[in-house]
Design brief:
The chain is α/β, with parallel strands linked by helices. 45% of the residues lie in helices and 10% in strands.
Length: 224
């Protein structure tokens, strides 16, 4: 299993599929927005992440996790998060985070990477943790039908990363691709590590994503 800390080089492995997260891969990272909000509130990033998103490296019963599984509406999740934070002596509002989220800028280099993957004969998918209320927004940002063979939205399938079942479900939608023949890109390290645990090649996306793109291109080169 290739480590997310050591991007593959041509000849290391070949792949049949590439699975991409959406936020933080094709658009600005919600975790960067979280850092900006933490700075504004003069609060530790890790604390704010825990309050708003719960232990994001797990799949639990935090209101945000429930919202991403389609079990809870965003308004109810907002109120429950506010109450949980207040019980711990903090005042937070989930909707403040949305002020820092940009839905206008798309990572064109990543879109081009998807097109190269498809041109090389690999199958492609989006696997995103998302909320029901965000569906029409993010789906309109890139031409999903042109780019992907499968689109998996956690709020639609009732499963969210890092649950191993949602990775395997995505690979089944791609025709039963074996995990070791698929790469997975995400801007949250816990989700990458979860993909690696099911046998996929994990690629951590940072900053402009160019290092991750290079890693995918190296894997695609093995198909030639």
């Amino acid at each position: 299993m290739t480590s997310h800390l050591s991007p593959p080089t041509p000849g290391d492995r070949s792949i049949d599929a590439v699975v991409y997260d959406f936020g933080g891969v094709f658009m600005a990272s919600p975790f960067e927005a979280m850092r900006q909000l933490a700075d504004e509130k003069k609060m530790a990033y890790e604390l704010l992440l825990e309050l708003l998103f719960g232990g994001y490296h797990t799949d639990g019963n935090h209101p945000w996790h429930q919202a991403e599984r389609g079990e809870l509406g965003i308004v109810d999740a907002r109120e429950q998060i506010r109450e949980l934070a207040a019980d711990q002596g903090h005042e937070v509002d989930l909707f403040d985070l949305f002020r820092f989220l940009s839905t206008k800028e798309i990572n064109d280099a990543m879109v081009a990477n998807v097109r190269r993957a498809r041109a090389a004969g690999a199958r492609t998918a989006v696997l995103t943790n998302n909320i029901v209320e965000g569906k029409d927004i993010w789906r309109a940002m890139i031409p999903l039908d042109e780019l992907f063979d499968a689109v998996v939205d956690s709020s639609e399938v009732g499963m969210r990363k890092p649950n191993p079942a949602v990775y395997l479900h995505t690979l089944e939608l791609l025709g039963g691709v074996a995990p070791e023949r698929a790469a997975f890109l995400d801007d949250f390290l816990g989700n990458v590590e979860a993909a690696e645990r099911v046998g996929m090649i994990g690629i951590f996306v940072e900053g402009n994503g160019l290092l991750a793109i290079d890693a995918v291109d190296a894997l695609l080169a093995g198909r030639s």
